[in-house]
Amino acid sequence: MVDNKCRKNKKEKNMFKKSLLLISLSSSLVFTSASFATTATYTAQATANMNVSLTVLKACSITASDMNFGKQYSNAGDLSVQTTAAVVCTKNTPYKVSSDSSHDYEMSDTNGDKIAYSLYADQAASTPFTTGTTGTGTGVAQNINIYGKVGSSALQVAPAGDYTDTVLLSVDY
């Protein structure tokens, strides 16, 4: 009977150890589950600064409408017309628009006949367009008036025909 009692005590001890082990494992699982649950809902954040930059370079462009003196009789007298050039320059960029000072300013027909003319920056014809006109860019198109004149003496001696010329306009900035 002592043997049975000893065996029973050993059995009880083993069962107790197993119970403790199960309780310990269960507790670990509960604590581990709890820590996973906390990690899953917790979010961390790291930050960094990003530098953004741009260098705007100044630029200008020009377009010009044609200047047309129309159809005129040789005895029409002095002729005056106006056209415009559109200048677009980067905001706050000073510019000067002018025509080529080395140009002859003569319209020619297909036979080589010529009619002299002049271009001006003002309607009073006091500032030759070769001298130019100045402005400051706004970033949008700015119209520049160009005035043309053909003197009656040049018109009187010209044979009948179609006369043309091409003038180079420049924007210095």
From TrEMBL:
InterPro entries, per the entry: Spore_coat_component (IPR053167), Spore_coat_U/FanG (IPR007893)
Keywords, ordered alphabetically: Signal
Pfam families per the UniProt record, alphabetical: SCPU
Signal peptide: 1-37
Protein name according to UniProt: Spore coat U domain-containing protein
Keyword Disulfide bond: no
Keyword Signal: yes
Source superkingdom: Bacteria
Domain Spore coat protein U/FanG: 46-168
